[in-house]
TrEMBL record:
Belongs to the LysR transcriptional regulatory family. InterPro entries: LysR_HTH_N, LysR_subst-bd, WH-like_DNA-bd_sf, WH_DNA-bd_sf. GO terms for cellular component: protein-DNA complex. The keyword DNA-binding applies. This is Transcriptional regulator, LysR family. It comes from the Bacteria. It holds the Pfam family HTH_1. It comes from Conexibacter woesei (strain DSM 14684 / CCUG 47730 / CIP 108061 / JCM 11494 / NBRC 100937 / ID131577). GO terms for molecular function: DNA binding; DNA-binding transcription factor activity. PANTHER family: LYSR SUBSTRATE-BINDING, TRANSCRIPTIONAL DUAL REGULATOR HCAR-RELATED. Keywords: DNA-binding, Transcription, Transcription regulation. Residues 2-59 form the HTH lysR-type domain. The keyword Transcription applies.
Length: 315
Protein backbone atom coordinates (compact mmCIF):
# COMPACT_ATOMS: atom_id res chain seq x y z
CA UNK A 1 0.00 0.00 0.00
CA UNK A 2 1.24 3.50 -0.86
CA UNK A 3 2.28 5.57 2.16
CA UNK A 4 0.20 8.77 2.29
CA UNK A 5 3.06 10.68 3.96
CA UNK A 6 5.32 9.97 0.99
CA UNK A 7 2.56 11.09 -1.37
CA UNK A 8 2.50 14.43 0.45
CA UNK A 9 6.26 14.74 0.03
CA UNK A 10 5.99 14.04 -3.71
CA UNK A 11 3.24 16.61 -4.07
CA UNK A 12 5.32 19.26 -2.32
CA UNK A 13 8.24 18.52 -4.66
CA UNK A 14 5.88 18.99 -7.61
CA UNK A 15 4.47 22.23 -6.20
CA UNK A 16 7.79 23.83 -5.23
CA UNK A 17 9.98 22.46 -8.03
CA UNK A 18 12.88 21.33 -5.87
CA UNK A 19 13.76 18.95 -3.07
CA UNK A 20 15.15 21.79 -0.94
CA UNK A 21 12.02 23.95 -1.22
CA UNK A 22 9.82 20.95 -0.46
CA UNK A 23 11.97 20.17 2.58
CA UNK A 24 11.55 23.75 3.83
CA UNK A 25 7.74 23.60 3.37
CA UNK A 26 7.53 20.28 5.22
CA UNK A 27 10.13 21.18 7.89
CA UNK A 28 12.23 18.18 6.86
CA UNK A 29 15.83 17.86 5.72
CA UNK A 30 16.55 17.71 2.02
CA UNK A 31 18.00 14.22 2.56
CA UNK A 32 14.73 13.07 4.17
CA UNK A 33 12.71 14.37 1.22
CA UNK A 34 15.00 12.56 -1.22
CA UNK A 35 14.68 9.34 0.78
CA UNK A 36 10.87 9.56 0.89
CA UNK A 37 10.70 10.01 -2.90
CA UNK A 38 13.16 7.17 -3.52
CA UNK A 39 11.19 4.85 -1.24
CA UNK A 40 7.93 5.79 -2.98
CA UNK A 41 9.54 5.00 -6.34
CA UNK A 42 10.50 1.55 -5.06
CA UNK A 43 6.96 0.99 -3.75
CA UNK A 44 5.32 1.76 -7.10
CA UNK A 45 8.12 0.27 -9.20
CA UNK A 46 8.51 3.34 -11.42
CA UNK A 47 10.61 6.48 -11.58
CA UNK A 48 8.55 9.47 -10.44
CA UNK A 49 11.01 12.38 -10.66
CA UNK A 50 13.46 13.47 -13.37
CA UNK A 51 16.53 14.17 -11.28
CA UNK A 52 19.06 16.75 -12.42
CA UNK A 53 16.49 19.14 -13.92
CA UNK A 54 15.84 22.63 -12.59
CA UNK A 55 13.10 22.99 -11.62
CA UNK A 56 12.54 19.33 -10.81
CA UNK A 57 10.20 17.70 -13.32
CA UNK A 58 7.91 14.75 -12.73
CA UNK A 59 7.74 11.73 -14.99
CA UNK A 60 4.42 10.70 -16.50
CA UNK A 61 3.95 8.30 -13.58
CA UNK A 62 4.84 11.09 -11.16
CA UNK A 63 2.22 13.41 -12.66
CA UNK A 64 -0.42 10.66 -12.48
CA UNK A 65 0.36 9.87 -8.85
CA UNK A 66 0.43 13.56 -7.87
CA UNK A 67 -2.97 14.12 -9.50
CA UNK A 68 -4.48 11.31 -7.44
CA UNK A 69 -2.68 12.57 -4.34
CA UNK A 70 -4.37 15.96 -4.71
CA UNK A 71 -7.76 14.27 -4.65
CA UNK A 72 -6.81 12.09 -1.66
CA UNK A 73 -5.70 15.06 0.44
CA UNK A 74 -8.80 17.04 -0.54
CA UNK A 75 -11.00 14.17 0.65
CA UNK A 76 -9.08 13.91 3.92
CA UNK A 77 -9.52 17.64 4.41
CA UNK A 78 -13.26 17.22 3.78
CA UNK A 79 -13.41 14.52 6.44
CA UNK A 80 -11.58 16.66 9.00
CA UNK A 81 -13.82 19.63 8.21
CA UNK A 82 -17.04 17.63 8.55
CA UNK A 83 -15.97 15.94 11.78
CA UNK A 84 -14.96 19.30 13.28
CA UNK A 85 -18.33 20.79 12.32
CA UNK A 86 -20.18 17.86 13.91
CA UNK A 87 -18.13 18.30 17.10
CA UNK A 88 -18.77 22.04 17.07
CA UNK A 89 -15.07 22.90 16.97
CA UNK A 90 -15.11 24.59 13.59
CA UNK A 91 -17.51 26.78 11.61
CA UNK A 92 -18.70 25.61 8.21
CA UNK A 93 -16.78 26.36 5.05
CA UNK A 94 -17.62 26.31 1.36
CA UNK A 95 -15.14 26.29 -1.51
CA UNK A 96 -17.09 27.52 -4.53
CA UNK A 97 -16.09 27.82 -8.18
CA UNK A 98 -17.73 29.71 -11.01
CA UNK A 99 -17.02 30.87 -14.55
CA UNK A 100 -16.62 34.63 -15.17
CA UNK A 101 -19.95 35.53 -16.80
CA UNK A 102 -21.93 33.82 -14.05
CA UNK A 103 -19.81 35.55 -11.40
CA UNK A 104 -20.84 38.92 -12.82
CA UNK A 105 -24.57 38.14 -13.17
CA UNK A 106 -26.02 35.19 -11.26
CA UNK A 107 -23.65 35.13 -8.32
CA UNK A 108 -23.96 38.58 -6.67
CA UNK A 109 -27.54 37.98 -5.43
CA UNK A 110 -26.68 34.38 -4.55
CA UNK A 111 -23.67 35.45 -2.48
CA UNK A 112 -25.69 38.20 -0.79
CA UNK A 113 -28.41 35.77 0.23
CA UNK A 114 -25.91 33.14 1.36
CA UNK A 115 -23.96 35.64 3.46
CA UNK A 116 -27.11 36.97 5.05
CA UNK A 117 -28.50 33.56 6.00
CA UNK A 118 -25.18 31.88 6.88
CA UNK A 119 -22.83 34.59 8.18
CA UNK A 120 -20.63 32.11 10.07
CA UNK A 121 -19.69 30.07 7.00
CA UNK A 122 -16.29 30.81 5.46
CA UNK A 123 -16.85 31.21 1.71
CA UNK A 124 -13.91 30.88 -0.69
CA UNK A 125 -14.63 31.75 -4.34
CA UNK A 126 -12.58 30.58 -7.35
CA UNK A 127 -13.15 32.37 -10.67
CA UNK A 128 -11.95 30.12 -13.49
CA UNK A 129 -12.79 28.78 -16.93
CA UNK A 130 -14.93 25.69 -17.41
CA UNK A 131 -12.08 23.39 -18.46
CA UNK A 132 -10.27 24.02 -15.16
CA UNK A 133 -13.31 24.10 -12.86
CA UNK A 134 -14.42 20.55 -13.63
CA UNK A 135 -11.09 18.86 -12.73
CA UNK A 136 -10.96 20.88 -9.51
CA UNK A 137 -14.40 19.55 -8.61
CA UNK A 138 -13.34 15.99 -9.35
CA UNK A 139 -10.23 16.18 -7.19
CA UNK A 140 -12.18 17.69 -4.29
CA UNK A 141 -10.50 21.11 -4.39
CA UNK A 142 -13.98 22.62 -4.75
CA UNK A 143 -17.14 21.64 -2.89
CA UNK A 144 -19.53 23.14 -5.42
CA UNK A 145 -19.25 24.98 -8.74
CA UNK A 146 -21.31 26.53 -11.49
CA UNK A 147 -20.54 24.82 -14.79
CA UNK A 148 -22.24 24.51 -18.17
CA UNK A 149 -22.50 21.90 -20.87
CA UNK A 150 -23.50 21.61 -24.53
CA UNK A 151 -23.55 18.97 -27.25
CA UNK A 152 -20.23 20.34 -28.53
CA UNK A 153 -18.59 19.56 -25.16
CA UNK A 154 -19.14 15.81 -24.69
CA UNK A 155 -16.22 15.56 -22.27
CA UNK A 156 -18.11 17.84 -19.86
CA UNK A 157 -21.46 16.04 -20.18
CA UNK A 158 -19.76 12.69 -19.53
CA UNK A 159 -18.29 13.71 -16.15
CA UNK A 160 -19.80 11.86 -13.21
CA UNK A 161 -21.01 14.81 -11.14
CA UNK A 162 -24.22 15.59 -9.28
CA UNK A 163 -25.88 18.48 -11.13
CA UNK A 164 -28.74 20.80 -10.29
CA UNK A 165 -29.99 22.58 -13.46
CA UNK A 166 -30.23 26.34 -13.00
CA UNK A 167 -30.66 28.12 -16.33
CA UNK A 168 -30.49 27.81 -20.09
CA UNK A 169 -28.33 30.59 -21.55
CA UNK A 170 -28.90 31.11 -25.31
CA UNK A 171 -26.17 32.73 -27.39
CA UNK A 172 -27.08 36.01 -29.09
CA UNK A 173 -25.84 37.77 -32.20
CA UNK A 174 -23.60 40.77 -31.53
CA UNK A 175 -23.31 43.27 -34.39
CA UNK A 176 -21.71 46.68 -34.91
CA UNK A 177 -24.17 49.55 -34.40
CA UNK A 178 -25.63 50.47 -37.77
CA UNK A 179 -24.90 47.07 -39.30
CA UNK A 180 -27.37 46.17 -42.06
CA UNK A 181 -28.62 43.14 -40.12
CA UNK A 182 -29.19 45.25 -37.00
CA UNK A 183 -31.71 47.31 -39.00
CA UNK A 184 -33.85 44.29 -39.84
CA UNK A 185 -37.17 44.12 -38.08
CA UNK A 186 -37.60 40.37 -38.38
CA UNK A 187 -35.63 38.11 -36.04
CA UNK A 188 -32.28 36.96 -37.38
CA UNK A 189 -31.44 33.43 -38.41
CA UNK A 190 -27.97 32.15 -37.64
CA UNK A 191 -27.45 31.58 -41.36
CA UNK A 192 -27.85 35.35 -41.92
CA UNK A 193 -24.36 35.73 -40.43
CA UNK A 194 -22.70 33.19 -42.74
CA UNK A 195 -21.01 35.72 -45.01
CA UNK A 196 -19.74 37.99 -42.24
CA UNK A 197 -16.22 38.27 -40.80
CA UNK A 198 -16.31 36.69 -37.33
CA UNK A 199 -14.72 37.55 -34.02
CA UNK A 200 -14.63 34.73 -31.50
CA UNK A 201 -12.82 32.54 -29.04
CA UNK A 202 -9.62 30.62 -29.56
CA UNK A 203 -10.10 27.35 -31.52
CA UNK A 204 -9.90 25.07 -28.48
CA UNK A 205 -12.12 27.18 -26.22
CA UNK A 206 -15.58 25.99 -25.17
CA UNK A 207 -17.00 29.20 -26.60
CA UNK A 208 -15.62 28.64 -30.10
CA UNK A 209 -16.50 24.94 -30.12
CA UNK A 210 -20.13 25.70 -29.23
CA UNK A 211 -20.32 28.48 -31.83
CA UNK A 212 -18.71 26.39 -34.57
CA UNK A 213 -21.05 23.46 -33.83
CA UNK A 214 -24.14 25.66 -34.20
CA UNK A 215 -22.86 27.30 -37.39
CA UNK A 216 -22.13 23.91 -38.97
CA UNK A 217 -25.71 22.85 -38.24
CA UNK A 218 -26.81 26.08 -39.97
CA UNK A 219 -24.77 25.13 -43.03
CA UNK A 220 -21.57 27.16 -42.77
CA UNK A 221 -18.27 27.43 -40.92
CA UNK A 222 -17.45 30.70 -39.11
CA UNK A 223 -14.08 32.12 -40.13
CA UNK A 224 -12.79 34.23 -37.27
CA UNK A 225 -10.45 36.99 -38.39
CA UNK A 226 -9.76 37.90 -34.73
CA UNK A 227 -9.82 35.57 -31.75
CA UNK A 228 -10.11 36.36 -28.05
CA UNK A 229 -11.68 34.55 -25.09
CA UNK A 230 -12.46 37.89 -23.42
CA UNK A 231 -16.12 38.78 -24.07
CA UNK A 232 -15.50 42.47 -23.33
CA UNK A 233 -12.62 42.59 -25.81
CA UNK A 234 -14.75 40.85 -28.45
CA UNK A 235 -17.54 43.39 -27.97
CA UNK A 236 -15.02 46.22 -28.36
CA UNK A 237 -13.74 44.69 -31.61
CA UNK A 238 -17.30 44.29 -32.87
CA UNK A 239 -18.05 47.93 -31.93
CA UNK A 240 -15.06 48.95 -34.07
CA UNK A 241 -16.76 47.33 -37.06
CA UNK A 242 -14.26 44.50 -37.42
CA UNK A 243 -16.80 41.69 -37.51
CA UNK A 244 -19.76 40.00 -35.83
CA UNK A 245 -19.91 37.49 -33.01
CA UNK A 246 -22.12 35.04 -31.17
CA UNK A 247 -21.92 35.52 -27.40
CA UNK A 248 -23.75 33.87 -24.48
CA UNK A 249 -26.60 35.94 -23.14
CA UNK A 250 -25.05 36.29 -19.68
CA UNK A 251 -21.98 37.89 -21.28
CA UNK A 252 -24.01 40.59 -23.05
CA UNK A 253 -26.34 41.41 -20.17
CA UNK A 254 -24.67 44.85 -20.20
CA UNK A 255 -23.43 45.39 -23.79
CA UNK A 256 -20.75 47.92 -24.64
CA UNK A 257 -21.65 51.11 -26.52
CA UNK A 258 -21.41 50.65 -30.27
CA UNK A 259 -22.81 47.12 -30.44
CA UNK A 260 -26.28 45.82 -31.19
CA UNK A 261 -27.42 42.58 -29.55
CA UNK A 262 -30.04 40.54 -31.38
CA UNK A 263 -31.79 37.33 -30.39
CA UNK A 264 -31.88 34.59 -33.00
CA UNK A 265 -35.15 33.18 -34.29
CA UNK A 266 -33.76 29.66 -34.43
CA UNK A 267 -30.47 27.82 -34.39
CA UNK A 268 -29.02 29.66 -31.41
CA UNK A 269 -26.79 27.41 -29.28
CA UNK A 270 -27.72 27.20 -25.61
CA UNK A 271 -25.41 26.66 -22.64
CA UNK A 272 -27.04 24.55 -19.94
CA UNK A 273 -25.90 26.04 -16.63
CA UNK A 274 -25.97 23.89 -13.53
CA UNK A 275 -24.56 23.71 -10.03
CA UNK A 276 -22.30 20.65 -9.81
CA UNK A 277 -20.59 18.80 -6.98
CA UNK A 278 -18.61 15.58 -6.61
CA UNK A 279 -20.81 12.59 -5.79
CA UNK A 280 -18.57 11.55 -2.91
CA UNK A 281 -17.55 15.05 -1.82
CA UNK A 282 -18.45 17.25 1.14
CA UNK A 283 -22.25 17.64 1.33
CA UNK A 284 -22.59 19.60 4.56
CA UNK A 285 -25.16 22.30 5.39
CA UNK A 286 -23.21 25.10 3.60
CA UNK A 287 -23.56 23.21 0.29
CA UNK A 288 -27.33 22.89 0.73
CA UNK A 289 -27.56 26.57 1.68
CA UNK A 290 -25.66 27.70 -1.42
CA UNK A 291 -27.81 25.49 -3.65
CA UNK A 292 -30.91 27.22 -2.29
CA UNK A 293 -29.28 30.63 -2.83
CA UNK A 294 -28.49 29.64 -6.42
CA UNK A 295 -32.08 28.56 -7.04
CA UNK A 296 -33.34 31.90 -5.81
CA UNK A 297 -30.77 33.87 -7.85
CA UNK A 298 -31.55 31.97 -11.05
CA UNK A 299 -35.28 32.57 -10.62
CA UNK A 300 -34.63 36.27 -9.98
CA UNK A 301 -31.88 37.14 -12.46
CA UNK A 302 -32.05 34.78 -15.43
CA UNK A 303 -35.29 36.07 -17.03
CA UNK A 304 -34.10 39.68 -16.87
CA UNK A 305 -30.94 38.94 -18.89
CA UNK A 306 -32.36 36.68 -21.57
CA UNK A 307 -31.72 33.32 -19.91
CA UNK A 308 -34.39 30.79 -18.96
CA UNK A 309 -34.53 29.86 -15.29
CA UNK A 310 -34.82 26.13 -14.59
CA UNK A 311 -34.81 26.43 -10.80
CA UNK A 312 -37.54 27.75 -8.52
CA UNK A 313 -36.65 28.80 -5.00
CA UNK A 314 -38.40 26.84 -2.27
CA UNK A 315 -38.81 29.97 -0.18
Amino acid sequence: MIDVRRLRVLREVAVHGSFSAAAHALTLTQSAVSQHVATLEREVGQRLVERGTRPVELTEAGYALTRHATGIFARLDDAEQELAEIAGRRHGRLRFGTFPTALATLMPPAFERFGRTHPDVTLTVVDDHLQRLVPRLETGELDLALIYDHEALPEISARDLERMPLADDPFQAVLPAGHRLARRRRPLELSDLSGEPWIGGSPNSAWYRITAHACRLAGFTPHASLASDDYIAVQALVAAGLGVSLIPGLAVAHPLPGVEVRKLASGAPVRRISAARPRDGYHGPPVAAMLESLRAAAAQVAPSIGATSLAISSS
